[in-house]
Amino acid sequence: MLKLSAPYRPGFAGSPGELRDKAVLARFPAGGDAASAPAGAPQAARWRRWTAVGIWLCLIGAGGALAYVVGERAGIRSLQQGTLHRLDIYSTSLRSELSRYEYLPQVLSLSPDVLDLLRSPGDSSLQFNANVYLETVNAHAQASALYVMDAKGLTLAASNWNQQGSFVDMNFSYRPYFQDAVRGVPGRFYGIGTVSREPGYYFSFGIPDGDRQLGVATVKVNLDKLDATWSQSADKVLAVDGNGVVFLSSDAGWKFRALRPLSSETLQQLAQTRQYTEAGSLTPIDMREHRPLSGGAGMVVQLSRGEAGRASGGDAFGPDYLLDSRPVDGTDWKLIMLSDMKPVHALARTSALATVFALVFLTLLVLYFQQRRRIVHQRLAAREALQGAYDELEHKVQLRTEALSEANLHLQTEIAERKRAEEILKTTLDDLVQTGKMAVLGQMSAGITHELNQPLAALRTLSANAVVYLERGQSSQVDLNLRTICQLTDRMGQITAQLKKFARRSAVAMRSVALADVIADALFLLDQRIRQEHIQLEQAIEPHLYALCEGNRLEQVLVNLLANAFDATAANAFDATATGGASLRRVRIVARSTPEGATVEVHDNGNGIAMEVMPRLFEPFFTTKEQGLGLGLGLAISAGIVRDFGGLLRAGESELGGAAFIVTLRNGPRGANPHG
User: Fold this and answer.
1) How far is 336 from 317, CA to CA, in rounded Å?
2) In what order do the strands lie in the sheet with 334-340?
3) Which residues contact 100 (CB under 8 A, 6 or more apart)?
4) If we measure between CA atoms, which residue out of 179, 294, 189 comes closest to residue 245?
5) Tell me: the pLDDT tens digits for 611-663?
6) Distance CA 637, CA 561 (A)
7) C-alpha span between 253 and 249 (Å, rounded)
8) Which of 68, 289, 393, 538 could form a disulfide with 588 if both were Cys (CB 3.0 to 4.6 A apart)?
9) pTM of the complete model
10) Which of these, 674, 668, 427, 425, lies nearest to 555 by C-alpha position?
């Protein structure tokens, strides 16, 4: 008998749960506190349990929400650090681009050609010299345009003087940069050119002559190349002027649009300076403030789905963007960057989910240890009862093991007997197949003998003639007779080789076999009978058709089916005089590929197969031929051979009016070994 500490093995008679419950009931009988408990105690305990679950779920939800807020704030701080750094870079590059041309107006004001022209504006030669000078300077400076105006704003000379859209003779007195320069203040202005229709930034400087201003020197710079650089950023970068109008943007659709609706005073001022007249109505960007950030460092905004480039949905506004800005030194401009907050929300969701999963895991861990503790107590309470049950189970296991051993021994004996029977059956089937071959050869023996007797008689005649021709010295006739003798011996050797190949014992070795070759070999064995009985043989054989089988056995099946077809048409023997020599015995063999596989069909125009005969057609020793003409094993053997190939042999009605036997085999790959 095993000790108490031995492990319990389930799976035998008796329920461990049942025995454990009995032991617990025996050790802790009903009554006592349980019996005296009030009737509402289970409902109150259930209520307390659900209340605790609800509180715990609320705590988990609060923890996830707190983790989401903390994760979002951390993500915003990280995103702001990168955004502000990039804004510093963009601001520096913009200021650097402006500083390249800031000195040019002062340089132009010192040119003698420019001063002479302003003093004598009507002199055409001085105007030509000033135009050439400005064109030469701009060729090196690569600005949009350099031009000089008189004190009334009329352009006297320009670097594009010889180009279409020249500034010469154009009056720009309405521009703020001209008005500032005339007052002696360097002018700075961004706007769209009223002549060139191209936006640019204007630097202007007044040209003094004592106490009066002779004119103004101006440089126009195109800043659109900054748009191309900003468009490569994943964020949206904007440059806005003091009025809140976007004049540079990584998004071309936002250029010359306002961040907010412009007041009537602002629109009137812009109309007077014609700053953005060519840009249109300056429609506001559809953007709203979602929430400000703590400390006033930026804000979260939302773009409409049309502005964000997304398909319309239930909400008119799309996802959140973090808005940060940076002023541009020396101007009233401001650089603004909108960063997609998807990574921030993803980080916040990940933090919330991780916190929720951690709290759920801790909850499950606590519940697990509580349940484990409860199970340990139950095991200790049921240990004594399990010991007795274990002893009983051991006895039952021993009895069941003995019974199983006896059953296993009996089963092994039956398996061995079954294997011996299968081996005997297989040997018997092979012998039966070989016997069938011999029976077919016996039926063909008369034709084969006739086929061999004709060449033998010809050999005797030809050899005797060869001796006579040799005595006469007719060597050409001797050579002709000897060649004919060789052809006859080859023909006899081919017949005997085909008979040996057909008669040999072969195992079922599956391989891919060309059906055309197997059909040709079968017809070769029956050739004498076909010619002798004047059978009209029709062939429809699909080329390059291969099937998985053993060629020699498939040839036996086809010989059997063809011989049965010849026998079935024997009643249709023709009358040569009545029919003019046309055969009434028709047999057709068809080989083709079908969805079921490779099929070989043998049709005849005999009397067909009666319906009552069809169910017993493939039974051993069943035949419809006259007594002495067959044993009834041919179709049974053929069906067994086809089944060994994994195929099917079935019978039906032929379109020729008689019977049709169809052999269906699995398709084989091309380029296979020759059959047999």
Assistant:
1) 20
2) 246-249, 236-240, 334-340, 317-327, 299-304, 287-292
3) 221
4) 189
5) 888 888 888 777 777 665 656 677 888 888 889 889 999 999 999 989 999 99
6) 11
7) 8
8) 538
9) 0.45
10) 674
